[in-house]
Amino acid sequence: LRHLVVVLGDQLDLDASGFDGFDAATDAVWMAEVAEESTHVWSSQPRTALFLAAMRHFALALQAAGRPLHYTRLEDAGNAGSLAAQLAADIARLRPAGLVMTAPGDWRVLQAIKAVAAAAGLPLDIREDRHFFVTVREFAAHAKGRKSLRMEYFYREQRQRHGVLMQDGQPEGGQWNFDADNREAFGSAGPGLLPPRAGFEPDVVTRDVIALVQRRFASHPGRLDTFAWPVTREQALQSLQDFITHRLPLFGRYQDAMWPGDPWLYHSHLSAALNLKLLNPREVVAAAEAAWRAGHAPLASVEGFIRQILGWREYVRGIYWTRMPAYADGNALDAHEDLPAWYWTGATDMACLRDALAQTLAHGYANHIQRLMVTGLFALMLGVQPQQVHAWYLAVYVDAVEWVELPNTLGMSQYADGGLMGSKPYVATGKYIQRMSPHCQGCRYDPAQRTGDRACPFTTLYWDFLMRHEQALARNPRMALQVKNVARLSDADRQAVLERAGAIRRGEVGHG
Ligand code: FAD
Ligand code: SF4
Predict the structure, then answer these.
(1) Strands (E), 34-97
(2) Residue 235 falls within a domain, yes or no?
(3) Which of 69, 168, 415, 467 has the fewest CB atoms within 10 Å around its CB?
(4) Res 36: pLDDT
């Protein structure tokens, strides 16, 4: 055997660089399902099932492409239980002359594979992951010498470099950003008839995986009776087409809206397919741009969508790979509370959180605003230790892989990196949730009340957060107005906020 090409569960792309020069006569592919990937961090049932189902379908695609494959299943006798141990055992058995792989997305996995190769005395050829628009080296060059990093400038550079939504060197429509046209709520009339989700009936391969996960990981959170994620490249392409046809035109307008009981709205639900590499971001961006050029979707929607992929997705990957491993330890606000146990069950009487948690457990999905301004916001203002928040997000979402989850959670949502990802902590009272959804109407709490029995916990914790961090936040010009308001509170007001916040922290308020 000349090369063993290592393929990880989130590298399911037949055209990945790891396959360049692949010769079926002398090379073979290596894949393994190992329990460690579901247990070293807690992984929900939908997340584990999606990874395993997509891996097994990719194994079929490899076979169809005539690429020899050594594949270990979770239930195989002698499964070594971890990527490193399984790879070491297979190296000893297959005796390849060298290892080849596309650069892994996860810092921990890269270290583990390097260590296995070194211990076996084998050369390890790690190739650039050309799935992404921007290499880590290019990101490092962009970041070099800048006092602060801002997504907006990075994104504009990428638009120019890749000629996306550009006309003669200028942004289409004469501006880079159409945020002002986006971000509406559905209003009292509600969202009306929403396009149905592009769901996929599990085939026999996926049904086997579902049964296996239910048996093997019975105690892990989440449900599998609603599993309908795309698990093959063909299904991923159908999902993309469905989004472009039915959702993209209104994506921008309702990007930040929430509606009880409907997780899908006008979002794309493509993050998991993208992160597993079933879809290439270039084809997603190109399809969105083409929809605008064909007059099918307005520029504000298309620009808003492309910004998420060509901007945010590439930006967070750059942050991750240029800052790890120290990034994972960040705790700039010195937060040490435990994550409330009901994050894992949904048993809370706060209507907005209950809805976001229920759909998270049912589908492994929540939209960006639910992650940032409901579950994330509550944990931030409660003062939960950021690493516990990180462990939760990494476990529960089907699209959760560390390179994208960690900067979003630790940086954007919890401000644990001290302002690298976002220029200020995203904090708000329950009134923000009231503006973007009808949740508060059906809730026992009142977002307008700061203290008292009916006070919305978000509103109490907002003031508590500002009081706790008053001095540090006063140095941030973008927080000036909020800090000024907190300075006006009387001692009695402060005391009442402290007492109510204490009751929330002790779990006397908010549990189901
Ligand atoms: P859409 O709203 O349709 O957006 C289109 C695409 O843009 C997404 O599919 C995704 O690939 C990309 N995108 C959008 N926002 C971001 C972002 N902030 N960072 C990177 N890419 C983005 N995204 C993940 O893919 N995996 C995660 O583990 C993850 N964890 C998150 C944790 C927190 C606390 C927060 C606030 C956000 C997180 N996100 C994560 C980003 C974002 O919430 C999800 O990508 C999005 O909700 C997925 O749903 P969608 O495919 O319908 O997205
Ligand atoms: Fe959420 Fe507060 Fe509104 Fe209840 S009142 S739904 S807890 S924001």
Answers:
(1) 69-72
(2) no
(3) 168
(4) 87
In this structure, is residue 330 part of a structural domain? no
Give CA angle at 405 (384, 278), nearest 5°.
155
Give the Å distances, CA to CA, from 199 to 103, 239, 240, 271, 363.
31, 8, 12, 14, 11
Same domain, 402 and 454: yes
pLDDT band at 410 (very low <50, low <70, confident <90, very high): very high
Does the pLDDT value for residue 186 go beyond 80?
Answer: yes
pLDDT digits (tens, 9 = 90+) for 363-382: 999 999 999 999 999 999 99
In this structure, the answer to whether residues 60 and 96 fall within a common structural domain is: yes
Instruction: Give the count of domains, the chain.
Output: 3
Which ligand lies nearest the alpha carbon of 390?
1
Residues 478-503: tens digit of each pLDDT: 998 999 999 999 999 999 999 999 99
* Residue 123 sits in the same domain as residue 20: yes
Q: Residue 316 and residue 411: Cα distance in Å, rounded?
A: 9
CA of 379 from ligand 2 middle (Å) equals: 14
Burial class, 325, CB count within 10 angstroms (exposed 0-12 / middle 13-18 / buried 19+): exposed
Residue ranges lining ligand 1, Cβ < 6 Å: 267-271, 274-275, 305, 308-309, 312-313, 316, 367-368, 371-372, 376, 393, 397, 399-400, 404-405, 408-409, 412-413
Tell me the β-bridge partners of 389: none
Residues 280-294, mean pLDDT to the nearest whole number: 98
Ligand closest to CA 462: 2
How many Å apart are CA 446 and CA 7, to the nearest integer? 51
Q: What domain range includes position 77?
A: 3-127
SS3 annotation, 258-299: CCCCCCCCCCCCCHHHHHCCCCCHHHHHHHHHHHHHCCCCCH
Quote the ipTM score: 0.99
Burial (CB count within 10 angstroms: exposed 0-12, middle 13-18, buried 19+), residue 222 = buried
Q: Which atom of ligand 1 has the smallest separation from the CA of 272? A: 25
The per-residue pLDDT for range 26-71, each reduced to its tens digit, is 999 999 999 988 787 789 999 999 999 999 999 999 999 999 999 9
CATH number of the domain at 457, please.
Answer: 1.10.579.10
